[in-house]
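Entry for the shared binder. Reason: the reviewer on the internal report wants the predicted structure included alongside the sequence.
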Amino acid sequence: METPLGFHSTNNTMKITLGCTHTKAQTLALYLVLFLSLCAAYPAQAQDIRWQQTNGPYGSTILCLAKNGTTLFAGTDGNGVFRSLDNGANWTAINTGLFYSIINTLTVSSSGTIYVGVSGGIFRSSNNGESWTMVNTGLSSTNVLALTVNNAGIVFAGTDGRGVFRSSDNGASWIQINSGLKSSSIYALTLNANGVIIAGTSGGVFRSLDNGDNWVSSNTNLSNSYIRAFAVSSTGTIFAGTYYRGVFSSLDNGTNWTPVNTRLDEFLVVSLTMTSTGTIFAGTSGDGIFRSTDNGASWTSINDGLSYSYVKALITTGTDTIFAGTLGGGVFRSFDKGVKWEPINQGLSKPQISTLTMSSAGHMYAGTKRSGIFRSSDKGLNWTPIKTGKGGNTSIYALTSNDKGMLFAGTGGGLLKSLDNGITWQYGIHTFFEINTLIVNNSGILFAGTWGEGIFSSTDNDGSWTQLNSGLSDFYINTLTVNSTGTLFVGTSSEGIFRSSNSGTTWIQINEGLTDTHINTLAVSGNRIIYAGTWEGIFRSIDNGSSWTSINKELSNTNVTALTVNTKGTVFAGTKGGGVFYSSDNGTTWQQINTGLSNTSILSLFASDSKLFVGTVDAGLFTADITSIARSLPPSLNISFAPHPAFDRTRLTLDIPRAGVAEIRIFDILGRLVQHTALGELSSGTHDIEQDLHTLPNGTYSVVVQAGSERVAKLLLVRR
């Protein structure tokens, strides 16, 4: 018969074997308990972890450009206004007093006063952008989409839904001027050399000959009425960019229009500019830049070096230098009228890094908001942008790869896939779903979690898809993960966590112990431990998700946005505003590691055994050497109970020094085996096991835990 209290110490200095009478066994067991109490886990030492910025990814979304003499201004989508004093070589944020971060439009008066239009109205600067003042008096609509100013300093503002406003006192006050204006959403404004004001709307072109007091429709021969951009030549010719009908020109102040669309008639033209010598440049929504040297009679694509094809803003300085503001790629500059382009993003905000992954070939990939996908072939040190093809959605929410080397990207417009390490991409079949999360299981099945349509799977690498929502009560999917045995876990926006043991065919909700059911992120360690990041911190499950425990000790910021676990079992957590934390004891305690991290709002994490990468909201990508982080392991196998004495249940806390197959055996006072629990493979660290004792009578029992080659025993008292 197996002895109830077999024990050997982990340093092999003491061996005890007990097979004796009831009283003697209890006495020896008490000494054993005292010995085990000395075997507490050593705390992890503070680590000198320092973050370093990687070389890329670069780029931000530029919505507008303006100049004041030799000074350039760039309005961004989310980071306010930047200024360059050296022809775009370096940029500096200039947002003092400007408390809106999305800049819709910029204009500069002849006296050097700068105006910016935002969703909250208009801001003015009289000191080259050093400080800003809100000037909204009289504006009944504060969503300003377009601005222009005439030689007399009169400012005109086009709004979303309330037409045009005018200010004759540098923006101090505004009056609405909509007489005859039949379309109230103004997307573009300009003035020609004759002082005629031209407004581009979703209902065509309107013009005013009297400073905006009266407007008339001017759409003769204009085959598309959605006007997005204007440019005016020194002779007064007006060029208009339209919605998928290219460019039109007018020689008579907008009275009549002529299409000038050779090679442009199917493109959405979102920006226009002209040099002083009459060369015209047209920026498109996905096809880069075109140039015309003959007043639009013919156009040539000029995209050499332009790695981002959505060109939202264009401006020229002199006769040859052009600046292009792109969607996701920052600013590009050409010194030779667009023959060659180069990125000039030093000092500009960096893209939001929303997802990170590594392929089986060893390449790293970063998905960004509006800046597309970047690839690194040198373990994350340097990054280069990857073109995802014409019309490709540049906001990437998820990335994954399979063992065949195929890459998959989830976007706001469906799935992208690549068969050649990201060199070329093609859209998958589901182009109408927003895909938030992707994962490939051990059998090679691809799973996609969508926003509003639930979960889909493909067994043939996107050849066909099956919707898998049986048992799901929330179709807004934030995160997916899979453990080593193939069990799937999904985190939803409001209904917590669901589990599937049959490749997603059916799902069951597993929320016991969760106090927050908005699940931002999930991560697994081995085949049993699961971590869930929520707005209320981190929860851990050691029983395949059947129950959850909050593990927020020393976690000073509980808005957890990203989680990952490396092969050593170290857990890393990214937070919104609190930076990065790690735990080397399965989440029992946490340490913050933010030295060198310039932005503490974390969107994504990727960990190897030696390196950790974090993607931030607007500071780009950082990496740190984590080889100095050691697992906080107990010096020996240790167990404890709570509550104790036990009633019908108790929680056994196991401190395991190294991974191994574990089991629990409970013996009564006569040495008979009364319970046996096989735990399977457990990782090193701390594990909480719920033990059901309701079938055991009152009395004293011996609990023997075997983990790998080590064994420990402790007395358990059951009392009701």
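Summary line for the report: The two ends are 30 Å apart (CA to CA).
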